[in-house]
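In response to reviewer comment 3 from the previous cycle, which asked for concrete evidence that the modeling workflow produces usable outputs, we include below a single protein chain processed end to end. The sequence was submitted unchanged, and the resulting structure tokens are shown without manual editing.
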Amino acid sequence: MNLIIQGDRVELHLFNENFITPDYLSWMLSPKVNKYLESKKEYTMNCISKYAQGLIDSDEDLFFAIVTDRHIGNIRLGPIYNTTAFVGILIGDVRYHGQGLAGGAVKLLIDFAFNIMMLQQLKLHVVADNVPAVKLWERNNFKAVSRIGKFIYMELCK
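The workflow returned the following structure tokens.
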């Protein structure tokens, strides 16, 4: 399937093997990018390929590449259970940080989730110290519902 969700400044392309590149690996190896990731592993092409292929093949997830004039990050809807899904985002190309592109991608994903997939609730958790990410989700109307350890748990209902 070749699903593309078009926005004003970004597009979400259903992820495929063509997005598994040395640039993607370089994001995962960058301390600025991976600082707040839950999994702290030694990333290799094989590692990110297995991760991405697992999401591509999943019946419970939709994994998208965030694209401007190039692949700049990824956004995930899933796992999806009944009318609830979890979400997560990574803008890997630091040249595109602070430009509002993550917000554009999140808005596209919310619209798709609620109006096309007919989901009723989106959930996530974010490292509390990751202030830009917390603000991103708050700007998109996610509300904090709890805090456990270093994580803030947030949700958005339709």
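The first strand starts at residue 4 and ends at 6. We consider this sufficient to address the reviewer's concern, and the full set will be provided in the supplementary archive.
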